[in-house]
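---------- Forwarded message ----------

FYI, see the Fosfomycin resistance glutathione transferase record below. Original note from H. follows.
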Amino acid sequence: MLQGLNHLTLAVSDITASLNFYQGLLGMEVQACWESGAYLSCGPLWLCLSVDAARCPAAPENSDYTHYAFTIAQQDFTPFTERLRLAGVAIWKENRSEGDSFYFLDPDGHKLEIHVGSLAQRLAACRQSPYAGMVFKEA
């Protein structure tokens, strides 16, 4: 039986640029690094950065909606997003859902999000204004 998300592995083109971004800008903790990769932690999440010569970043408008969202506390949201804006990160979407969210790209064009809120909060908002055809699990 599955118990949860174990880790994410992101293909990157430049390990130094990616470490500067994920450790230096986002504040993730490096657990180990080597010539072509690194393991970082973000709360209970384990993130692997792995250099891959086949990594070809796509412009946000030429890629799908797949993205990785990280939890952030409400009181940290504004200062964190200001730090990202000052660093010049590319923004790929404006928030239109419940809870504060900020959508941005990493150096390789991976779509990322920081989000204030939980699944329970999202479902409560959806019960008020459901998506087309939305069905909820019975309590």
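H. also flagged this: The chain has two domains: 1-54, 57-138.
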